[in-house]
Structure formats: structure tokens, C-alpha cells
Design a protein that fits this description.
6-stranded mixed β-sheet, disordered N terminus, 47% helix, 10% strand, alpha/beta, 26 helices, single chain, disordered C terminus
Amino acid sequence: MEQNNKEKPNMPKFNMNWIYITIMVALGILFFTGYGDSSTSADGKGGIAKDDNYYNFKDWVSKGAANEVIINGAEKKLKMYVKPEFIQDVFHADIKKTGPNPYLDVEFGSVETLEQFLDEAQKSGKFNGHVTFENKKDGDMFNTIINLTSVIFFIALMIFLFRRMGGGASGGVFSVGKSKAKMYEKGNDLGITFKDVAGQVGAKEEVQEIVDFLKNPKKYTDLGGKIPKGALLVGPPGTGKTLLAKAVAGEAGVPFFSMSGSDFVEMFVGVGASRVRDLFRQAKEKSPCIIFIDEIDAVGRARSKNPAMGGNDERENTLNALLTEMDGFGTNSGVIIMAATNRADMLDQALLRAGRFDRQINVDLPDLNERKEIFIVHLKPIKVDDSVDIDLLARQTPGFSGADIANVCNEAALIAARRNAQTVCRQDFLDAVDRIIGGLEKKTKVMTAQEKRTIALHEAGHATISWFCEHANPLVKVSIVPRGKALGAAWYLPEERQITTKEEMLDEMCSLMGGRAAEELFTGHISTGAMNDLERATKSAYGMIAYAGMGDKLPNICYYNNQEYQFQRPYSDTTAKVIDDEVLKMVNEQYDRAKQILLEHKEGHNALAELLISREVIFADDVEKIFGKRPWVSRSQEIMNMEAEEATAPKTPEIPETPETPETPETPEIPEK
């Protein structure tokens, strides 16, 4: 106990500058105090240099080893280049190590004495080379500057690389294990609250409790309750999961740590787990706080059941560290984890259990009323005119996410700016929806008259079948202008159905087959233009037979398999043959039904096709002029008609209610005698 109470000595903290200084000193010693394996002489001849004294120099010259002598009178130094046959004797190394022109670096006393010695050596035939004189004092200074510049450049390059490897953080390469989470000291610094999140009423109610607990925890703890440790936001892309997490931080006003699941993954082994630990360490210091991990499926994917296949998997080590930090022996009081993903089926079951992510909050695609609210939010900065109908836009965009609706508003503004308009009108929004769904118009695509007529007959077939099928979606417009990969398209106003009946699915399938049926009936041949229709019809039929149990031979049977890594079908080959036969029968029955409807309305279909050829785009009013009013009114059309009647109906003055007269008491019945 006494040892634990003793104060720990103040050890100096590690600093990367120590490494930089050590490298600088070592390189300075290398450049200024010694010579390397290779150097370059003053006149550019390659070879190593060796320091020697004047007496040895005279001895080597007398032996005939001198090839050339360069005398620097200013510094009283000379260089004696050695003949190749004497290199082994002088340097005790072969020519591969010394270079082609090694030399001795010698200091001398008197130039006159040196000249006299060399003259005598030349006269005696011991020295046959030539002598060169030079007076340079700044040579060493120039080399010193070059060497110093090289050292500084090399050190600067090392510092730059270390910092790049460390992600730009202070500490260089040793900070690679630090968390990359971006921290907001106060969540309301983001400037986003629940008012900025349109729709998602259910999801906002779920996370509102987290905000209330962070603001007033005593309200819950007095009753013995505990706040959920984690909340997982699940939903398709673009539905506002990240925006909802920012709104939670903005409402709570507590520290907010935000990072992506991919930020844990690094090329170095053990970095992911280290970053997880560092993230939770920082969060505990700032508690109460919120940790938000976006796209958690990057690190929380289900672990392999066969450890031999994975080996030392860095992702699994990171996940294990995350599981331990979220609910292990340590305590994370006041730290709430929020995460978002659109692949919840891939997450590890240990991550989803209660105590880690207690709540899974579904952030679904917005319904009709929620799309209206989202349009209102995104239309605030846009200058719109009175022709824009938000109700119509919400009905025209089924299945759109919040991000898609934001894209529609932006595209509409760009389209209006392209035509130099002052405001964005209703047609700009409809064009933007068409642009996002179908693609860009390609009016310059070259087509023959026969191809154009085939496309017109095809699209008129879709329009005719949908007009006379009770449960088909109501038609909005038909176009034979190429968009994206499609040569023509028909736009509908789909109904928002919570459940779909077999009759509704069959009518939709019959409408899909109307294009191919029209081609065969009125041109005598079929084409590849119906490929997308056939694909959708086939998938729908397989879903009805194999999943929804709507087959005649396989009723009430569902073969849906949610196991992603299972490599075999949940039914036998015999059942697969039955499913294929049922699908083929169902599709062909609707194809024959489509041909029968087209033959019954042959004249109207041909008139519709001719109108398409001449105008390229027709609307539901044009179809109504040819076929008359649609026999069935859809639910969405009924709502539109009711709203139109309410808008045009004159308001009658309210009549004050007359006071009720007291009822007279009933006379008792006289019993019969």
C-alpha cells in the first residue's frame, strides 16, 4: 500500500523531435567527419580519397605509382591520382571498391620544394604524368553548403512522410493508433435540431428519450430506470439517419463524437482496436456525451464461423474491441453510442444484443404526408410560383427518399435557370422528376420510321392495358422520346399500398405485358424493346409463387431464405420445376389476357399510337378523349377529386344551432288485462 501511495517520478514525455535531432546529428557526422564508399574528385573523376602524409607521397612517386598530381597552392594541398596497377598496394582494395580514379589527399609545406621534387622525378623517369596548379579556397565551403542542404532536405522529407503516415495528426507515425473522431464540444454547435428533420415522427420519438435523459437524468433514475446504452438507426440510403443523429446532438447540447466505420480500418495491424479504445477513453473524459459511428457495417460485419478461413483478421479484432468497450468489465456511464447502417442484416449478433444496441430504430422511406413535409423544407430557399402543387409532387414521387426529394428540388431550380426563368414552376418540377427517374432526354437519337412506329405501338399498349385494368396504377403521361437507355416510357401515379392482393399484382403484370402483346398483334413480330418489362414481370411472378404462396400447385408456401451465406436452395429440384412451370403459366396467362384486351380496343389503341407518333408525348386527358372515362377510379384519384371539390365548393354561412326542446317523458305502457 505504501508503494501505491508514493508519487510516481515525473518521467519526460516522448517527443518525435528527439528522433529528428538524432537523425540530424548522425547525418552531420557522416557528411563532415568521414568519407563514404565513393566520392568525386575536383575535376570530376570518380574514385575514393585517402588522407596521407608528404613522406609517403614522395615514396609512392619514387616507386612510379603517381599518374597525375593536382596542386592547390592556396590551401597547400595536393591530390595524387594512383595508377591502376598500384591501387591494390596503396589502398589495399581492388578497383571495384576504390573506383576508377582513386587519389591520395596530401598536405605539403612549400610549393618550391614540391616543384623541385617533381621535376627531379620527371627527369629520372619515375613520374611520367603531368602536374596541374589551381588556387581555390571556396571549394570546401561550397561542398559544405551542398552537404548541409542535402541533410536539411532529407530531414524535411522524413518529417513530411511521417506526418502523412500519421494522418496529419501531431505525433507523426506514432499517432496512427489515435482516434480520428471529430469532436464537437457542444452538439448544438452543429446548428441542427429536430425541426430540421422533416417526417420520421416515429424515429424522432424513439431518440427523444435519449435527449430527455441527457437533459434530466434524475427523472429516470429516481424510478430505477436506465437509459439505453446504444441506438442503431437502420434504413435505406438517403432517409436521414445521419441528419437524425446530428439533431439528437443539437437537441441534447452535449459533446458529440462523430466518425465513420471505415476510419477504424487501417493498413497496420492492431490500429483499429487501438482507435476504438482511444475513442472511448476520450468519450469517458467528456461524459455525458454521444458517440456516433456512421456506416458501422464496415467494422461490425458478422464474424466468420470458421476461424481457419479468416486468420488474423484485423476487422474482427476491431469488432472485438468495440464489443468489449460497449459492454464489458469496464463502465461507460454517461456514454451513449449511436450508429447508422443500411445493412443491418450483415451485422454481428453480439453487436445487436441488448446492453450494446438496446434499440433498433427503423428510419424508413417517407410516406405521402412525410414527403409533403420534406418538400416544404427543401422548397424554402427556392423561388417558386403559384403553379407548384406540393400535394401533386408528393404523389408523383413514391419511393423517393429525403435525399432524392432534395435532388428533385435542386434539379428543378437548375432547369428553370437553364431557360432563364425568374421562378421555378410546376413543369420544372415534373421535368426534374422525369429526369431523375428516366434519365436525360435524347431527342437527337436517330431512329427509322418503322422503329418509331414500333415504339409508339409498344407504349400505347401499356397505356391501353393500364386504362382497362381495375387495379393498375392510373396513367399520367406516355412518351416515345428516348431517355437514358429507354426508348419510350409510360408514367403512372402509383397508389401507396400497405398490402398488395393477388388481383392487383396480376393487373400490374398484365400491364407490363401490354407492350410485347401490342408489338406481336399489330406489327407481326416481337423485338428486344420489351426486355425490361419481361424482367419485371418474371421477378414479380417468382415472388408471388416462391415467396407469397400465391401459386395454384404451391399454395401457402414460402421459400424465402434470409441466410446470406447459405449455398443451397431451401427446396428440392422437383419443387424448382414446379415453381418454373407455375411462373411460366402465370406470365403467359397475363400475356394472353393483354392480347385479348388489345383486340377488344383495337381502334382506340391504333388512334393512341398515331397520336404518339405525331406528338411524341401525350397525357391522361388525351387517352380519356379516345377511350372515354376510365371505368374504375383509383383511391388516389378519389382523394384528388375530393380535394378539388373542397377547394371549389362555395363556403356556406354557418347557421346557429337552435336550442334543443326538452323531450317529453314517455308514457308508461299499460299492461294488458
